[in-house]
């Protein structure tokens, strides 16, 4: 007897991956379409067009998955969250730097989605997302190299031979006698600095155009936190006579007309800040100098409190879209008892 193959339901992890991607990509579509209206550089436009095509295809596919599973399609961000007539808020150069960092975020997210998916179509889908985004990343790096605006991590001179740690003081870092940074520690510091730079520039630009005084105050507070954290991480490299990434503060125009809704501006900052805690945590996990671990712990505490305050504002404004929740069995039991 032929039986119709039973459809495997999405797991909670797969549902979370799709929901998160939908919210982020609907925001990206608003941002990229606006940039396409303001950017003049042809190479950057080509990157934006490719990225927009990816985001739009993702949103379309996720809608299909949600309909198949009978889940309501998230709201995310729409044309009501963007003003295409607003003048440029950032230079073409910063738009390229922004796309570089946001693509790095995408690669991290897609790798995690592949690793938490089990249903065949979900694994295939996120592998394809990762493959497409790696192509985008390669495009961005090439253009940045051609234009001479990419800041590379420092290089090391080769050691004469392989060595092994012989003393516990390799882990020191509290008072004096600090060993040089390892390549692993330096990598974490450098890429966290690069991500911090983009947040600072966005906060400078967003604070110029946001309508709400409360949100403007919040974003300006974030700029001070991120700038302080940048200086702390940069000082660690300076102590080792190593360069740190270039800042792009001057790439913000004088525009005071907002291209985006306050909802989108706030969500963008809160999302990047929340993600930063994860990147700090990853760097902490591989830092074997005790002083670095302590610094990362302090950075994480500071930005987690800031991110929580941002989420509270979103809740107050009715902008915090609730992700899918597990069934509240106690509430259901009470409801059943009342009936």
Automatic annotation (TrEMBL):
Record-annotated membrane-spanning stretches? 264-286
Q: Which UniProt keywords apply?
A: Membrane, Transmembrane, Transmembrane helix
Record-linked InterPro entries:
DUF3231, Ferritin-like
Record's protein name: DUF3231 family protein
Q: Taxonomy-wise, where does this protein's organism fall, top ranks first?
A: Bacteria, Bacillati, Bacillota, Bacilli, Bacillales
